[in-house]
Specification:
TIM Barrel, globular, Lyase, Ornithine Decarboxylase, Chain A, domain 1, six-stranded mixed beta sheet, 11 helices, alpha/beta, 2 domains, eight-stranded parallel barrel
């Protein structure tokens, strides 16, 4: 991404990692060492980012319903930008900043009214989206006016996010143009532009290319053209990949337990995980592939349905994948598992979450140890506090 940005964009750029894709203290420290920024959406992610060594000027606080505690912490830490998501939040943040005697830097998240080609649950820029200030009805324009008039807020830039798993660059071009038309209409020249993330990665062998060059080129060209024809100085450009950085880095390993043939002739292999550690297939029918670790080159001649161990019919990781003969004890590897799996993991059925290992040539680290039920006070507390 850095190489592509150096070629495509002649001004200052920053790559920030969307922590929601996957975040832990050990992983966050590795990201901070790369010198990139981080987008956080909760007090927990904010605290991990600071403990990991991210400087305040590298942190952006996102979210559609930030709590008073989260906003106050971001104001006190003087983060690089608080991304305002609504007019109500704008007024709430202004009050918090005023009480703290600070001038908080903000971006406005604008919803441009575009529907991109991805699963509905991953679309975030359409007219009924729960995210951002809508452009069509004037809320985004009002937001700009109110921040520009505020003594406690400083408008640093505009932000948008179109969705996730996007493989077309044209929506970014159209949305950026809309964003800057809005800015011009309010007499605003954004010093920072964040077109969000969302560029896709393939999860199966027949998936589309994840090369970010078309995405970066489209964003950079549009920003340069739109600013150039208005005679504006180029802004700092912030790109926000999460999935693109983390997804392909992750490999999930499962042990096969029960295997069986169903009444309709299908063959099922159940593994020691499932929707608790990877809810994506159950949430929006995300597709994966898999192979047997000890038989990577054996003929894959049997259609196998990979299911989890949880008490839900929807606990299915892969509807069908061609594998060699599968039996109890085999280890199944599922690639492209680094994003939006463990970050959304649960303890459903009181299942412990798995260990996370970091493998690098010459070494192995435990980023997160395997969880046990006894680790969690939330599940095992026996104390009772009486409330009068």
């Amino acid at each position: 991404m850095r190489q592509n940005l150096q070629v495509a964009y002649p001004e200052t750029v920053e790559i920030t990692y969307a922590a929601k894709a996957y975040f832990s203290l050990g992983f966050a420290r590795k990201l901070a060492d790369l010198g990139i920024g981080v987008d956080v959406v909760s007090l927990g992610e904010l605290n991990i980012a600071r403990r990991a060594g991210f400087a305040s000027e590298k942190i952006h606080l996102h979210g559609n319903n930030k709590s008073e505690e989260e906003l106050a912490a971001a104001v006190a830490m003087d983060v690089q930008a608080i991304v305002v998501d609504s007019l109500e939040e704008l007024a709430f943040l202004e009050q918090i900043a005023k009480q703290a005697g600070k001038r908080a830097r903000v971006w406005l998240r604008v919803t441009p009214g575009l529907t991109v080609d991805t699963h509905p649950y991953r679309q975030t820029a359409h007219a009924s989206s729960k995210f951002g200030l809508p452009l069509q009805d004037g809320q985004a324009a009002e937001g700009i006016d109110r921040v520009l008039a505020s003594q406690s807020l400083e408008l640093r830039g505009l932000h948008m996010h179109l969705g996730s798993q996007i493989f077309e660059d044209e929506p970014y071009r159209r949305a950026i143009s809309k964003l800057l038309e809005l800015a011009e209409s309010r007499g605003c020249v954004p010093a920072e532009i964040s077109p969000g993330g969302g560029w896709g990665v393939p999860y199966t062998p027949d998936g589309e290319s994840s090369d970010p060059e078309p995405w970066i080129a489209a964003v950079a060209e549009t920003v340069v053209d739109e600013y150039g024809r208005r005679g504006w100085p180029l802004p700092k450009l912030i790109m926000e990949p999460g999935r693109w950085i983390a997804a392909r880095a992750g490999m999930a390993l499962y042990s096969v337990g029960t295997t069986k043939t169903t009444a309709d002739g299908g063959f099922v292999a159940a593994v020691d995980g499932g929707m608790a550690d990877n809810p994506r297939p159950a949430l929006y029918h995300a597709l994966y592939t898999a192979c047997l670790v000890d038989q990577p080159d054996e003929p894959a001649d049997k259609a196998v349905r990979i299911v989890g161990k949880f008490c839900e019919t929807g606990d299915e990781l892969i509807p069908a994948v061609m594998l060699p003969a599968v039996q109890r004890g085999d280890v199944l590897a599922m690639p492209v598992s680094g994003a939006y799996q463990l970050s959304m993991a649960s303890n459903y059925n009181l299942a412990p979450r798995p260990a996370v290992l970091w493998l690098e040539e010459g070494g192995l680290e435990i980023l997160q140890p395997r969880e046990t039920v006894d680790d969690s006070f939330w599940w095992t507390s026996t104390s009772v506090t009486k409330v009068e």
